[in-house]
Amino acid sequence: MNDASTATGAPLLRLEGLSKHFGPVVALDEVSFEVRAGEVVALLGDNGAGKSTLIKILSGSLEPSGGRLYFDGRPASFASPADAKALGIETVYQDLSLCPNVDVVANFFMGRELYRRVAGLSFLRETAMQAETERSLADLGTHIPSVRTTVEHLSGGQRQAIELCRFVHWGGRLVLLDEPFAALGVQQTRRGLELIEEIRRRGVAIVVITHNVLHAFQVADRIVVLRHGRVVGERPVAATSHEEIVRLITGDLADPAPPRRAAANPG
Prior knowledge:
This protein is α/β, with parallel strands linked by helices. The protein has eight helices and twelve strands.
């Protein structure tokens, strides 16, 4: 986390009283917080806190039961992940969304391939796509020995870097990172943290969903803690401590209101 945050202006993303019910089960209970461009917000909470449900709503996989969502100052609703992507919202899950049996270039241009027409026939502009992929990766400080390597032969950190670089290259504005360091080693995690910082400096808004309090303090400007589907704490990193965040996660600090759940939380 850089002490001189690049976050500016009005919130890019604003949630107001967002709720989600699965029958009698309250997965999210009036969740409200904001994320600005150039800001990293870490979303923390124990299993069943509602993190997964919230991310599915923001990514367009679920519709909320109540509340409002604003993006770039305008009301937003997503009927599908394609609606969220159209606004520049991308979700990077633990298992990623890359195709392992094709190379880096093919993954980078998936659905956006460049073609040239010759005698009425279409041919892929392989050289142009390769050069553009190499430039984009280099621009964010990501080194891949060969962009013609199939993804299945790359490390988890390299795969994550490709997905994030692709997101930035195609004009993404808000990225949701779901447990981005869960399967990475120490060196790959350090590089992942550096890449998040570089992306933030470019004015992209980032929400990091993690169980790791240490990683949250390393990369985030603010921390939002969920417990039993409610926001029980929101703290600037510079004004809180590991101990306070852990107490919020575990419930040692009082919840704003008792949870209203009839069964185990699905999120």
